[in-house]
Amino acid sequence: MVRWLEPVLWSIKYAPHTWDEFVGQDDTIGQLRGLARSKTAHNMIFLGPPGTGKSCAAQVFARDLLGDTFTENFQYLNIRDLKDISVAKAKRDLTALAKLDRSERTELDEFMSAVYREAKTGIALKGRSREPNKGQLLHEAIRMFASTMTLSNEMIKYLVLDEADALDTSMQQSLRRTMEMYSDACRFILITPSLTGWSPAILSRCLILRFPALSGETVMRLLQDIAGKERLKVDDTAFAAIAKESSGDMRRALNLLQISAAGVTKVTEDIVYECSESRIVSAVRRMVSLAAKGSFGESRDLMKQLLAVEGYTPDEVCLQIQREIAVRSLDETTRNALVQRTAEIDFRMKQGKNPFIHLSALLASIGDILSGKKV
Ligand SMILES: Nc1ncnc2c1ncn2[C@@H]1O[C@H](COP(=O)(O)OP(=O)(O)O)[C@@H](O)[C@H]1O
Ligand SMILES: [Mg+2]
Predict the structure, then answer these.
(1) Are 295 and 192 part of one and the same domain?
(2) 18 in a domain, yes or no?
(3) From the CB of 16, is ligand 1 less than 6 Å away?
(4) pTM (2 decimals)?
């Protein structure tokens, strides 16, 4: 495979690597810069909607504060990815992993293989022989990083837990204990879109930094800069349309600019609207079709892509599912069942803190209802 021919996502190509490359977020970035400069290492929560610079800021902060020891003393874990790794996958030992092609195993796989063995040993020490469950694997993953000594004794370590809203109550409790136990050597940055469902004990240990949705002008400023670097011709109204469609989510704005610019000599407002609508419409159509034919995993992957990579909100995805159901040719009973189920999920999403779980449940129900199984 010729890897270098793959298109590079602009949201990755232009991700900020230094403080000066961030746009907007002046207060938060200023505060973080000050903390890094004075080597003040707090536990922190980065709070805000998608595409506002939280993950990038966590990296830049840790790099700035840790300096030369960044490589050894920094670890990034995405909780949703970690939860998605099955116990069976984590169970593969390093010899089994080594037999796989490089493209089939990731650093996370290798890390989780070590984590699995630690967790299993822990359970064996208690005189039991059962398999560790996912919660225990996660706990072990965090503990393993937090507990190893730093190379230079005076340095601390930073562990970034991205999408930390996916931690359930018992995982939060174990995180709190780990935070206490290793508080002299390890600091945490937790990234989450909201504070609902967070244990007060964790909140009280963290400095909360807010990353609000970026303003339209800020989004446009960065888009104009990048359009210049990519030598694109873009109408002013098209910049405004992208800013409007992306509602302060920079990742989504860059994706939309990139999709709109593909194969045209000039990006216009009309092209932007065409691209921005058709993407979610066609992706949700495919997602529902996959769920309908029982390919739940693929369907869920596509949903994850829409939420985590393309930056659509769970509400938008849910609304689009509802529209998709309305335009499909279905008998009345089936359609009613689907509409009711969607409404139920929409309600639950507003109450719960993990919309991903609820949307996954919706996909599973779509599969069941369309294949005639009772739900
Ligand atoms: N404040 C910002 N300044 C410049 N680029 C940004 C900013 N926020 C987001 N981006 C762009 O969006 C992409 C996703 O940012 P990320 O930090 O992963 O967002 P979050 O973690 O808040 O979802 C980045 O790679 C970058 O291209
Ligand atoms: Mg992120």
Answers:
(1) no
(2) no
(3) yes
(4) 0.78
Residue 46, domain CATH = 3.40.50.300
Instruction: State the residue range of the domain holding 196.
Output: 25-210
- Number of the ligand 1 atom closest to the C-alpha atom of 23: 3
Query: Ligand 1, residues 45, 56, 224: which to mutate, most atoms within 8 A of Cβ?
Result: 56
CATH code of the domain in which 352 resides: 1.20.272.10
C-alpha 33 – ligand 1 centre gap (Å):
17
The finding on whether 19 has its CB within 6 A of some atom of ligand 1 is no
My answer on whether 50 and 173 are in the same domain is yes
> Distance from the CA of 112 to the center of ligand 1, in angstroms?
27
Q: What is the 3-state secondary structure (H, E, C) of the chain?
A: CCHHHCCCCHHHHCCCCCHHHCCCCHHHHHHHHHHHHCCCCCCEEEECCCCCCHHHHHHHHHHHHHHHHHHHHEEEEEHHHHHHCCHHHHHCCHHHHHHCCHHHCCHHHHHHHHHHHHHHHHHHHCCCCCCCCHHHHHHHHHHHHHHCCCCCCCCCEEEEEECHHHCCHHHHHHHHHHHHHCCCCEEEEEEECCCCCCCHHHHCCCEEEECCCCCHHHHHHHHHHHHHHCCCCECHHHHHHHHHHHCCCHHHHHHHHHHHHCCCCCECHHHHHHHHHHHHHHHHHHHHHHHHCCCHHHHHHHHHHHHHHCCCCHHHHHHHHHHHHHHCCCCHHHHHHHHHHHHHHHHHHHHCCCHHHHHHHHHHHHHHHHCCCCC
pLDDT in tens, 220-247: 999 999 999 999 999 999 999 999 989 9
CB 209 less than 6 A from any atom of ligand 1: no
- pLDDT, tens only, 93-134: 777 777 777 667 777 888 888 888 888 888 888 888 888 888
Distance 46 CA to ligand 1 centre (A): 13
| Residue at which a domain ends, from 164, 190, 210 | 210
| Shortest-distance Cα residue to atom 24 of ligand 1 | 15
Atom number, ligand 1, closest to the C-alpha of residue 253: 12
188 and 313 belong to one structural domain: no
Note whether 58 and 152 are same-domain residues.
yes
Q: Kindly state whether residue 254 falls inside one of the protein's structural domains.
A: no
The domain boundary, picked from 186, 210, 234, lies at 210
